[in-house]
Structure formats: C-alpha cells, structure tokens
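Hey, quick one: can you model this chain's 3D structure?
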Amino acid sequence: MANKLVNKLRGMDRRLFTILMIVFVQILGASLILPILPLYAQRRYAMSAETIALLVSSFFAAQFIAGPYIGRLSDNYGRIPVLIWSQVGTAVSFVMLAFAPNVETLFAARILDGITGGNIIVAQAYVTDITPRDRRTAALGYIFAAFGLGFIFGPALGGILSALVNPQFPFLVAAVAATATIFLTWYTLTETVTPEWRAAQDPNERTTLSPLEVVRNYPLMLILTIAFVGQASLGLLQATFALYGEAVLFSDYSDRMTDLGIGLMLTAVGITQFVVQTALLQRLIDRFGEVNLIAIGNALRSIGMILFALITTPWLGPLAIVFFAMGSGISMPPLQSLSTNTVSDRVRGNVLGWYQSALNLSIILSTAVGGVLFAIEPTTPYWVGGAISLIVVMPALMLRGQVQEPSSEESDGIKNESNPAVTQPLSGTNQSGHIPR
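Sure thing. Here's the predicted structure for all 437 residues.
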C-alpha cells in the first residue's frame, strides 16, 4: 500500500498536492486544541458542561453565518486572497485562546476563527476547480485523507504538549501551524478564478445562490438535509467527548493521563480517515456507488455512537472511534461531491458554502444540545447520536434518481493549470516523468 501511495503522490497535480499540504497543516494545528480546549475551559475558567458546549458551538455559529459569503467571495474575487485572510484569522484566534484573560475572550477567539474560517471551504472549491466531475469525490476524499493525517498527529501532540509543558502551549503551536499555511498558500498556489475563466462563463448566469433558489433545488435540499441530520452525531461527539472521556473512560486516571489518553484516542480518528481515503474510498465508490456509500457510512456512524454509549473502559474506545470515523470517511466526500453536481460550475464555491453552512448549523444545535444531554447522563449524547445517524440512512437512499452520479465516460483527471477546460490524469506523470506543473 505504501508503494501505491508514493506513486499517487508522484503523479499528483502539484496544485492538489499543495492544497493537501495546506489542509494537513491547518488541521494539525486545529486538532492540537481538540483534546484540551474543553478541559482547559473547565479547569482554568470553571466553565460548566453547558457553557463549554456553547463555546464549541460558537465557532460553528459564526462559520454558519459567514460560510456562504466566504464561498461567494472566493467565486467573485479569487480563491487565494480569501484563503490567506481566513488563515490569518485562524492564527490570531489561537493566540487569543492562549492568552485569554476571561471567558469572554475565549468566546471572541472562537467566533473570530469561525467568521474567517473559510479556509477549508475555499480549499475544497479550489479542488473542484481543477478536477473534472467524475473525479471530484476522489479528490475531495484526498482532502479528507489530509484531515485524517492531521488528526493522526494533532490530538496526540496536543495532549503530549499539554501534559509536558502547559495547557496554553498547544494553542501557540497551533498558531504557528496556521501561520505556516499562509506562506505555503502565497508562494505555491496559482489562482484558478482567472480573467480567462471568468470570460469563459456565461455573462448572464448568476454567480450566487439565493436561499429561495436553494430551497427550490430539490436534489440540493435533500443533500443538505442528509448532511444536516447526519452531522448532528458528530456535533454531539465533538461537544462532549473530552468531558465523556474524563467522566467515564478515564475516571480513575490523573488529569495528565486523561489529556494524553483522549489525545491518543482521537488519533485513531485520523488513522482511520487516512486509510479509508487513500486505500478504500475509490474502490468502494466503484463497487457500491456514491449514493449507497452515503447510506452505509451513516449506518457505520450509528454503530460507533452506540458502542460509545455501551463501553466503560478506554481500551474499547478505539473500536467505537474506528466505526464512527470510517462511516464519516465514506459518506461525507460523496455527499459533498454530489452537491456540486446539482448546480452549475459558476457557483461551485457558493454551493460549497451553503453545504458547509448546513453542516455548521447542525453542529451549532447539536453541540449546544450535547452539553445539556451530557449533564443529564454522560452516555445520553451517544444514544441520541446513534439514533439520528440510523434515521438518516433512508433519506440517503432517496438520492437515487434525484442527482446524477458521475459517469465513467467523463474525463478522468485533474484540469490543466493553464486551461481549466483541459484535463490531465489524476495519477501518472507527464512525458518527462516529472510531476505535472
């Protein structure tokens, strides 16, 4: 498998590789704080579980409001400037978290990161710019693989740094990582929303999707509904996992061992995501089709959440995480890819903004509810998450016939840098044997 991965990287379009590196570094920094932020807020600021859940959801609330605008700005003014400014906001927010004098500053930092947190949306739009329709799921899958790779190292590193240095130090490391992506973007990426690209578009075609147009687009609304309901299970997990780990899985362990254990356990998310995206996703798409994978993935998510509700020892935690992460890994890329097939290419960034806003709205509500459910009983969020993941399987199957799945007859590869309408192979080298540039 290692040789196949090396060959894929050698033959990959340089722009896609750069985007994957940017996403990896960004997620590495963001995931550093995942295992420590809730406990940091609880121990240093004496925040309740309900308030911590609101702190988590404040980021997604801000991103929900800003998401469509971020996507629209990248459609109108280019991917690169929007990508850079969003990374600046992320870096500043991490510094604010490290030196926050009070609870209000914690909330301000998370809201700032949410407002400017369009980096992933724009990165995904960039990938769809350089990728033909029939390869978008695989290319977006690589982004999820970069997510996974960041999660392999980020949470574990965050737990280790918190245990060995202090709880503030991981936030500063995350700020450095976010700053690194700014320079990576500036010096290595070329703009895809070029004057030539704009000239090739229909001048009479609208560049934005209004809320009414979204509602009237039945296939898109069905996709957004599936994404919204399915993502709620992730919100419940994200809002309560660190607290659940301390209260249930690591109840007999010290604070340092709890931080380290939760960080290492979240590493299993990254490992699973990386393996699924690099070794399994395309094979599963070829065998089952994108619509079936969305249903299967949500069923696996349900199994993972129910396992969390049942276990009481940290040694079984990775098993539940593998089911949940695998379900997310095989369901989210095809769902996101199909959303771009419901609209014209002119509004790709905008529709991805709407898609991200649906996810964020789900996270907002589910993280807020997660804190309340956790206060009732620590395993309640996981029973509820398992149930809603299972419920969404049937609507996922309803996508059959509602949205066109990419055909193998479509062009296969990455769009040529000089002319977005021309494609070159996703894997394989050019005639000189070097990475296509």
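One thing worth noting: The two ends are 26 Å apart (CA to CA).
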